Inverse folding.
């Protein structure tokens, strides 16, 4: 989600709740709102996000 939204921790998943199914609800919401490249896009579109995620991860310090 970071590579799609442009900021960390903006996704709905995992969310925090006492209901164990809420994690799945949050994941579904993220996929519906931001996961079109994953769900219906081409391999190239998805791989663009993979490459961006790798670059974002490498650019962050290991210790916050």
């Amino acid at each position: 989600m970071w590579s799609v939204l442009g900021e960390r921790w903006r996704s709905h998943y995992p969310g925090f709740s006492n209901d164990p199914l809420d994690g799945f609800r949050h994941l579904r919401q993220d996929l519906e709102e931001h996961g079109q490249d994953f769900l219906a896009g081409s391999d190239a579109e998805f791989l663009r996000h993979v490459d961006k995620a790798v670059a974002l991860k490498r650019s962050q310090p290991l210790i916050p």
